[in-house]
Amino acid sequence: MTTPRPFGRALCAMITPFAADGGPDLGAAARHAAGLVARGCEGLVLNGTTGESPTTSDAEKSALIRAVREAVGPGAPLVAGVGSADTRHTVELARAAERAGADGLLVVTPYYSRPPQAAVEAHFRTVADATGLPLMLYDIPGRTGTRIEVETVLRLADHPRVVAVKDCAYDLLGSAKVIGRTSLAYYSGCEELNLPLYAVGGAGFVSTVANVAPEPLRAVLDAFDAGDTARAAELNRLVLPLTELMMAAGLPGAVTAKALLRAGPVRAPLQSAGREAADGLLRAYEELTARTGADG
User: Fold this and answer.
1) 61, 138, 186, 258: which is the annotated catalytic residue?
2) Dihedrals φ, ψ of 138, to 5°?
3) pLDDT tens digit sequence for 126-180
């Protein structure tokens, strides 16, 4: 079976750089996006969690898409986060993203209100019907409070514009079941599961860590595709210390990625990383690049 990859394999969940005055730094965003593509990212996800979408305005989201589209040209797919707790607002964001030049939409489960599964399904179908763009469902119950249950995903797979899932549900069994029964492209949204999900037929990853280390993450997939599973496992092991510090040490990924990139402030309620945390991140990054030969 050929694994579908509608947006490529190696996608970066890109930060949104801000200037010292707190506004978006679109020039920095354009440079960062172009650099990520040059370093092996096959697609970019904008205005997601790592892009601090809860604290950027609708106009800022559209401006970011346009700036990045101009910077990377037509070759790299741009997937725009358009999720919100409000179906009507999500539809508005989806249409704005389409006008701004996005190639696909990342749509998170509506949060806080904790809708039942029939309402979750109706939400996604409404958004899918609102534009001509393909959808990537974003299943991250740890943040939204609501899982996209396996049976719901299976039903949504019959919609012609529901083509992919960003998987942060930590349910490898459920994911493998959907992969085996549908043509949906499953992208790991949790770096520690990039290789396991890929091994059972996943499409690749949507990664925050790729903001700073795209080459080692892509190298894991390249080694696996070449049939060198031992090399893939070793490369995956080398990435884990940085992954743990960036994604599982108490600070959000937007904070840790910006600390390493020196990409300006984060927006409240987030706060920038302290000196001790930033130093620890830098040591882990330098060790990874020394051992893999990758350095941006």
Assistant:
1) 138
2) -115, 105
3) 999 999 999 999 999 999 999 999 999 999 999 999 999 999 999 999 999 999 9
Whether 274 has a pLDDT exceeding 90, the answer reads yes
Indicate if 138 belongs to the active site.
Answer: yes
The confidence band for 49, taking pLDDT boundaries of 50, 70 and 90, is very high
Q: What is the pLDDT of residue 294?
A: 67
What residue type is 11 in one-letter code?
Answer: L
Tell whether residue 206 is among the known ligand binding residues: yes
Out of 61, 166, 258, 285, pick the active-site residue: 166
The structure tokens listed for 78 are 């741009």
Burial of 150 (0-12, 13-18, 19+ CB in 10 A): middle
112 counts as catalytic? no
pTM of the model: 0.96
Rounded Cα gap, residues 245 and 187, in angstroms: 21
